[in-house]
């Protein structure tokens, strides 16, 4: 029996206990239990806090062993797992801070740099009390996650459109991207992809916010060590900056995130300023006050056709992997047209867009204004600035028609372009299959134009704007030429579409994309030139051009923005009018042929065919 128990059994007497006994009394080692003490013949009961030696005596070592974690799992969960999670959180933050916004910079060296934002962020968090620290950490983490998503979006825009995402203007283009995916990959796949992307963005923002909060909490618990670490890291960063230290040509000291924010802020401010300035510029027009009878007098009596071939860029004529098939097609087409009495001159225009947003190329060509973003496009469409096609309507001497197989909804731009009638995807009588994004083959669209518009008798000549879409990405499946007399309602294309290449088979394959792109351009050019050979007259003047280069996966990251343009006519006087342009004879512009900005074409064309300038201000 313990000493303190025996003492308590002595009534009425005060006992002076040693310090050790007093402590033992207040916190007894072996409080009494109902479990009987083990005998000399049986071991100590499991969980009683004691171990027995061979003689049945209590062992101090046994008491120490009872206090240790019972399993290694508990050690992992309480020691290693928290630090593993913290390390992963820190790694996620580091990756987001260094995430590039171009595919070319997505390499390992970008992620071994020392980010200034992490050092400054750690220093700020260490100075804050708990609640403000959590709020600042969560907010900063969520913002970093959103910026990372924006960098990924930037990569996509650079790959497809050759430019960065504009946070002021480009949100509405995401709807067009979704429509493109729906036409290319199907509705179900696109819906699943859209949901997946939204979930990934939300998860990314939440994960970075939680990671930042966790790292901030760890820094606060180890404040002294964290402060020393931040000081050392700051010193290293300053030293690396001062001496320009690099790894594989990449500076060690980085302020990438701050730089990205600065670029986006400056781009947003420039966009807002540009909007106001461009609205003023659009009001000034070299031919704004030109009387109707002084517009294009040298084209009176001619059927003038402006045709845009989707994605028909300089790469189609010069890239060694694409050009051979396209140039052979152009040579063959030029010979066939010459046999039919047609001749051509060709040049280069530098497009206002790249890889997509075709309407920017169309509007730049026809307005004479440089329209390289959506806000400029909206401004021009709402203005009275004279478009090249509207100049024909303004004279009252032409019927004006648009053939737009890619238009599948209301198209208010009809007013700006001065088109009396527009035939959209549902008004050309097509009953065949879609070819990915393209609603119908170019050959059918041109035959429908002939049947419904060009081939009919009329009191006035015709001015037409035609958009050919078969060469639109993803360039699979591609139509094939059929006998013009067999086109019917387009059902003849059904087996061709079913046996064609699937978009998913080439959409991520650069080599196959180039091959199929070249085939699609050859198909569109063949469709157009055969139509002209078949239905063109002595009074036909055809202007055809590309709207932009194909995306960088096909044209290359260093491709120009140039597109070919040709004017074709039987009447030699029509080409004599542009002799001083120094364009190349035939359907292929030469390497030394002059290159103009696309926005200069309207004024040059109007002037060449006799229009009198009369500026508006």
Automatic annotation (TrEMBL):
Annotated region Disordered: the residues are 1-75
Keywords, A to Z, come to: Membrane, Transmembrane, Transmembrane helix
Question: What is the recorded name of this protein?
Answer: CDP-alcohol phosphatidyltransferase
Q: Which Gene3D superfamilies does its entry note?
A: Alkaline Phosphatase, subunit A (3.40.720.10)
Superkingdom of this entry's organism? Bacteria
Q: Which InterPro entries match?
A: Alkaline_phosphatase_core_sf
- Bias type Acidic residues, positions: 55-66
Which sequence ranges are marked TM in the entry? Answer: 80-100, 112-128, 135-153, 192-213
């Amino acid at each position: 029996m313990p000493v303190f128990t025996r003492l308590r059994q002595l009534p009425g007497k005060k006992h002076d206990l040693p310090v050790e006994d007093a402590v033992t009394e207040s916190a007894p080692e072996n409080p009494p239990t109902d479990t009987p003490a083990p005998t000399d013949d049986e071991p100590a009961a499991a969980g009683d806090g004691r171990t027995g030696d061979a003689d049945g005596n209590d062992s101090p070592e046994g008491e120490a062993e009872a206090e240790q974690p019972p399993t290694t799992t508990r050690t992992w969960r309480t020691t290693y797992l928290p630090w593993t999670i913290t390390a992963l959180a820190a790694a996620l933050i580091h990756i987001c801070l260094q995430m590039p916004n171009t595919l070319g910079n997505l390499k390992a060296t970008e992620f071994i740099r020392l980010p200034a934002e992490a050092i400054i962020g750690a220093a700020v968090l260490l100075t804050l009390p708990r609640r403000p620290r959590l709020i600042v950490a969560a907010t900063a983490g969520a913002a970093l996650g959103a910026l990372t998503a924006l960098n990924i979006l930037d990569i996509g825009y650079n790959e497809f459109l050759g430019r960065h995402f504009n946070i002021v203007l480009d949100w509405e283009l995401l709807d067009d991207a979704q429509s493109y995916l729906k036409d290319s990959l199907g509705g179900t796949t696109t819906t699943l992809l859209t949901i997946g992307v939204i979930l990934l963005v939300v998860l990314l923002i939440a994960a970075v916010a939680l990671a930042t909060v966790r790292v901030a909490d760890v820094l606060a618990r180890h404040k002294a060590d964290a402060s020393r670490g931040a000081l050392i890291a700051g010193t290293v960063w300053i030293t690396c900056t001062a001496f320009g230290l690099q790894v594989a040509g990449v500076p060690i000291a980085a302020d990438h995130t701050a730089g990205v924010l600065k670029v986006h802020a400056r781009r947003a401010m420039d966009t807002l300023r540009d909007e106001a300035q461009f609205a003023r510029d659009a009001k000034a027009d070299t031919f704004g006050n030109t009387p109707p009878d002084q517009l294009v007098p040298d084209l009176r009596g001619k059927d003038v056709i402006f045709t845009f071939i989707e994605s028909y860029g300089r790469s189609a004529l010069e890239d060694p992997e694409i050009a051979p098939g396209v140039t052979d097609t152009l040579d063959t087409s030029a010979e066939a047209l010459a046999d039919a009495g047609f001749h051509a001159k060709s040049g280069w225009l530098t497009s206002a867009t790249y890889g997509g947003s075709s309407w920017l190329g169309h509007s730049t060509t026809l307005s004479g204004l440089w329209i390289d973003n959506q806000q400029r496009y909206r401004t021009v469409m709402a203005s009275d600035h004279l478009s090249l096609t509207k100049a024909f309507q303004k004279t009252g001497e032409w019927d004006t028609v648009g053939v737009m197989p890619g238009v599948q909804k209301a198209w208010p731009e009809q007013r700006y372009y001065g088109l009396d009638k527009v035939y959209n995807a549902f008004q050309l009588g097509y009953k065949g299959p879609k070819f990915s994004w393209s609603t119908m083959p170019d050959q059918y669209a041109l035959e429908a134009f002939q049947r419904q518009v060009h081939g009919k008798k009329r009191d006035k000549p015709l001015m037409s704007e035609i958009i050919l879409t078969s060469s639109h990405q993803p360039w699979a499946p591609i139509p094939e030429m059929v006998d013009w007399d067999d086109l019917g309602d387009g059902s003849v294309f059904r087996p061709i579409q079913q046996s064609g290449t699937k978009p998913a088979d080439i959409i991520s394959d650069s080599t196959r994309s180039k091959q199929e792109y070249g085939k699609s351009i050859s198909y569109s050019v063949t469709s157009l030139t055969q139509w002209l050979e078949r239905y063109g007259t002595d009074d036909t003047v055809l202007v055809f051009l590309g709207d932009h280069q194909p995306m960088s996966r096909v044209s290359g990251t260093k491709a120009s923005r140039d597109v070919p343009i040709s004017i074709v006519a039987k009447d030699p006087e029509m080409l004599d009018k542009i002799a001083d342009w120094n364009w190349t004879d035939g359907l292929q512009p030469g390497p030394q042929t002059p290159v103009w900005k696309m926005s200069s074409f309207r004024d040059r064309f109007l002037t060449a065919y006799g229009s009198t300038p009369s500026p508006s201000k």
